[in-house]
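Tokens as discussed.
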């Protein structure tokens, strides 16, 4: 799986875990709706560290906490 898909899956997982709506995440993270739809729909080719930071902030967690998931293990991510 590519990194963009992994981020989209992690967002979906955390939305359920934290009982949060996508709208609330957008407001808390400062990520615009159109951008969020591109992330969730895996239309972005790259995910920046800034975006990861904003997502983590929206979930009230650190970047490390956001990335601390088996989804991001090197054996799961295809970097090509």
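Sequence:
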């Amino acid at each position: 799986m590519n990194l963009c898909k992994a981020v989209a899956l992690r967002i979906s997982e955390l939305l359920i875990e934290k009982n949060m709506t996508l709208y609330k995440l957008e407001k808390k993270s400062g990520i615009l709706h159109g951008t969020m739809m591109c992330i969730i729909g895996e239309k972005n080719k790259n995910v920046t560290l800034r975006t990861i930071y904003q997502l983590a902030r929206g979930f009230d967690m650190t970047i490390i906490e956001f990335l601390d998931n088996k989804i991001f293990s090197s054996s799961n991510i295809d970097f090509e």
